Amino acid sequence: MAHGHSSRFHTVGDGSGIEHSDRFTREEVALALRNRGMPLEGLRYPITPSGMHYLLVHFDIPHIEAKGYRLHIGGLVERGVSLSLDEIKARPAVTMPVTMECAGNGRALMAPRPISQPWMVEAIGTAEWTGTPLAPILDEAGLRPESSEIVFTGADRGVQDNNVHLYERSLTVAEATREEVLLAYAMNGAPLEPQHGFPLRLIVPGWYGMTNVKWLTSIEAIDHEFGGFQQAEAYRYQTESGEPGEPVTLIRPRALMAPPGIPDFLTRTRLLEAGRVTLSGRAWAGREQVTGVEVSTDGGKSWSEAVLEAPVGRFAWRGWSCDWDAKPGSYELSVRATCATGARQPDEMWNLQGMGNNACQRIAVVVEERLA
Amino acid sequence: MAHGHSSRFHTVGDGSGIEHSDRFTREEVALALRNRGMPLEGLRYPITPSGMHYLLVHFDIPHIEAKGYRLHIGGLVERGVSLSLDEIKARPAVTMPVTMECAGNGRALMAPRPISQPWMVEAIGTAEWTGTPLAPILDEAGLRPESSEIVFTGADRGVQDNNVHLYERSLTVAEATREEVLLAYAMNGAPLEPQHGFPLRLIVPGWYGMTNVKWLTSIEAIDHEFGGFQQAEAYRYQTESGEPGEPVTLIRPRALMAPPGIPDFLTRTRLLEAGRVTLSGRAWAGREQVTGVEVSTDGGKSWSEAVLEAPVGRFAWRGWSCDWDAKPGSYELSVRATCATGARQPDEMWNLQGMGNNACQRIAVVVEERLA
User: Fold this and answer.
1) Is there a contact between B124 and B35 (Cβ–Cβ < 8 Å)?
2) Cβ contact B26–A24 (<8 Å)
3) Mutate which of A266, A330, A363, A368 to disrupt the B interface (most B C-beta within 10 Å)?
4) Confidence class of residue B301 from pLDDT cuts 50, 70 and 90?
5) CATH number at residue A313
6) pLDDT tens-digit profile of B209-228?
7) B8 falls in which pLDDT band (50, 70, 90)?
8) Nearest Cα to Cα of residue A32 among A133, A105, A132
9) Residues of chain B contacting residue A9, judged by C-beta atoms under 8 Å apart
10) Do B97 and B140 sit in the same domain of this protein?
11) Mean pLDDT score, A19-33
12) Best CA proximity match to B26, nearest among A263, A117, A29
C-alpha cells in the first residue's frame, strides 16, 4: 500500500513516507497489532491452521450477514447477475491449497524503511480454499467484446492518502478467467471467519495477497484501465515519488526457515544445543515451481543444496530440509530459493512502497554445548 | 513478562528494559507481528471468532500430537494420574464463555514504556471454552494435606532474562479448585488450534491471560511458594527493579469502544459523517461485575452513562452503548468502566513491567458534514 499521510490526519514520521531511523513509529506498531503474521514455527504445517495464517486488513473488518448477502456481476456484460450465498455454494466446488503472501512482506527489512504495515518475513500462509470457479460465472453473464478488465469490490471502506474509498482491485479478463481463480466461501473446511472475508472472497493463486479481495460484493466488467487507488496509486514498484511505476502482480520466489532451537523471548535470537540438527522450512514462487533451495550457516559465504519435498499443490509451497552439524558458536543462518525462470532471491532490495521484498531471510543462532 | 536482556543475546534499547522515546525497537515490532490483538471492530461479536481472539505466545508454539499425549498429575498427591486426551474428553464437559485479557495489555501506552510485547488496548477476546473441571481430577488424585499450590507446566520452552525454562505458573489450591477452572480442549466448538494450546490448556476465568497455561503437560501439587521465572520474576507489579513487587492476578475493570466511522489506513484516526451515531463496545472486570460504563466525547471533561446489556456470561464481558449527536469537528472519545467493588479505570498508570494498565481508551475522531 502507499506511504504518505492524509491532510485530515496527523503526520507520521517526517511525512515523507520513508523512515531513515531503525526505530519504528507508533502508527506502524498499531498496524502490526491489528494485522498478524504467521509465527515461523507454523512452517511445520503443510496447511496453515486458519488462526495462524497471515492477515492484512486495510480498513475495518466489515460485518456481513449471510442472509441477504448478494454478489452482483455487472458492467459490460450481456446479462447482469445477482447471486445469493446459497446459489454460489450450489455451483461446482473446487478445493485448492494456495500459498498467499502479502505484497508488503519484507518491507520493514528495507533501509530506509517505507512506513506502512511493518512486515519482516511472516506475512505468509497456505490454506485450502473452497469455492466456485469465476470463469463460468462471467461466461454465463456474457462478457461483452469490449471488456478488458474485471473490477472486484469489497465491502471494506476507509481512507488512504486522503482518499475515501471501498477496497477495489482489477484483473485483466485473461487473468480473471484463468481456471484456478475462485470465489471462495470456505477456508480449511470451515466457512470464512469475518477477518478472512466472510461470506465470500476472491482467490487468485500466484498473485500477491492484495489481489484476493475480501468481503466481495461486486464484480464489474470495464473497457479501460482501472484507476482505483489500490490499483493505480498503491501496490506499485516505484523508485521515486510521483512516477507511475510498475504494478505489483505475481508472488516472487522465497524460502523461509522455521528457526531451529528455542527462542529468547525478547530478542528472538535462537539458542540451540550442539549436534546434528535438521534445518527445514518451505519455499514458494507464486505461479512458478521452486527448483532449488540453498542454505547457508555462515552468513551467506557458502551455500548447501537442500532436499526438496513435493509441492503441497500447484500454487502452494514445498517443504525443504538440510542437515547441519552445529558446533558451539554464533551463526547467521540464511536460505534462498530459485524458481523455474531462474530467478533467485536477492541479498537485499528496495523500492518506495516496500513491495515484493524477497531478500533472503537471516536468523541469528547461538549454539551451546549444553542448554541450561 | 519481565523486561531486560539476556547476556547470551544482544541488548534491546539501552538494556534497562524501559524506553523513554516514543519510538519502538525492532524487537518490540517483531513481537507484535508474532502475537496478535483483536481488531477493535471485533467488539461487535459477543463471542470473538477464534482467529480474531488475541494471542500471546512467550516462546515457540509447540507441536503436540493428540495420539500419545498424556497429562500427568503428580507431586503431593495420594495417587499419581496420567490421562490421555480421550480420557479427558470422556469426563464431564462444561462450555463457558470467558473474557481473557493479557496482563500486558496497555503496556505500550505507558510512558516511559516497559520494553516487551507492545500492546496498546487490543489484547482481549471472549471465547467459549469447552473442557472438564479440574477440581474433581485433583480430588481423585487425592491432594495431600500439606499441598498449598498447584504448578501447571506447558510444553513451550525458551529463554527469558537468560533463564532457560518451560513455561510454568502456579495457583493456590483454593484458586485451582474453584468450580470454574477448566482443562479445555475446545474453543468456540472446535478443537484448539496449535497456537491456542492444542491439545489441552488451563482456563482460569477472571485471571489475566498468563494464568491460562497452554500446551499443558503436567500438574503438580507442592507445599511451598512456587519460584518459577514466570511466577516470581515476571508478572509482578513493581515500581523499582529488584523489589519483589506484588503478583499479577485478576483482570481489572476495562471498557473498550469499537471505533466509530471509518479508519484512515495509516494513522487509524476515525472519519465520521455528522449525525446521530451509536457508540458501542464491551466492558469486563475479571471476576467482578461491571456496574457502570461512562463515555466522554470531549477528552474526559464530561461523562455520560452508557446503557448496559446483560453479561455474555458470569466471567464474560457485557455490551454497552451510548448515542452521540456528532457535529463537525475533531474529538477525543473515551470510555471507562466501574465494577462492583467500586474500582474505576484510571486516566493513566505505570509500573515497571507494564502490567494491568487499564487506563481509559482514547480514540481520535474527525467528524465531517459529508464524507468524500
Assistant:
1) no
2) yes
3) A266
4) very high
5) 2.60.40.650
6) 999 999 999 999 999 999 99
7) confident
8) A105
9) 264, 266-267, 269, 366
10) yes
11) 97
12) A29
Q: How many domains does chain A have?
A: 2
pLDDT confidence tier of residue A5, bands split at 50, 70 and 90: very low
Assigned domain for A172 exists: yes
A12: nearest CB among B9, B159, B266: B266
| pLDDT at residue number A8 | 85
A298 shares a domain with A240: no
Question: Closest Cα of chain A to B49: distance in Å?
Answer: 7
Interface test with A, best of B61, B265, B270 (most A CBs within 10 A): B265
* CA atoms lying within 13 Å on the CB side of residue A9: 28
Looking at the fold, whether B310 and B201 belong to one and the same domain comes out as: no
Q: 3-state SS of chain A? A: CCCCCCCCCCCCCCCCCEECCCCECHHHHHHHHHCECCCHHHHHCCCCCHHHCCECCCCCCCCCCCCCCEEEEEECECCCEEEEHHHHHCCCCEEEEEEEECCCCCHHHCCCEECCCCCCCCCEEEEEEEEEECHHHHHHHCECCCCCEEEEEEEEEEEECCEEEEEEEEEEHHHHCCCCCEEEEEECCEECCHHHCCCCEEECCCECHHHCCCCEEEEEEECCCCCCHHHHHCCEECCCCCCCCEECCECCCEEEECCCCEEECCCCCEEEECEEEEEEEEEECCCCCEEEEEEECCCCCCCEECEEEEECCCECCEEEEEEEEECCEEEEEEEEEEECCCCECCCCCCCCCCCCCCCCEEEEEEEECCCC
**Which structural domain, as residue segments, surrounds residue B316?**
254-368
Q: Is ipTM > 0.95 here?
A: yes
pTM to 2 decimal places: 0.97
Residue A5 forms part of a structural domain: no
Is B324 domain-assigned?
A: yes
Domain final residue, candidates A247, A264, A293: A247
Q: How far is A195 from chain B (nearest CA, A)?
A: 7
Q: What is the pLDDT of residue B3?
A: 45
Q: Chain B: residue nearest A108 by CA?
A: B26
Domain end among B232, B247, B262: B247
Q: B201 and B265 share a domain?
A: no
Contacts B262 to A, Cβ<8 Å: 59-60, 157-159, 164
Confidence of residue A157 (pLDDT cuts 50, 70, 90): very high
Say yes or no for a CB contact (<8 Å) between B262 and A159: yes
**Nearest CA-CA partner of A61 in A159, A131, A157:** A157
pLDDT band at residue B372, thresholds of 50, 70 and 90? confident
Same domain, A268 and A287: yes
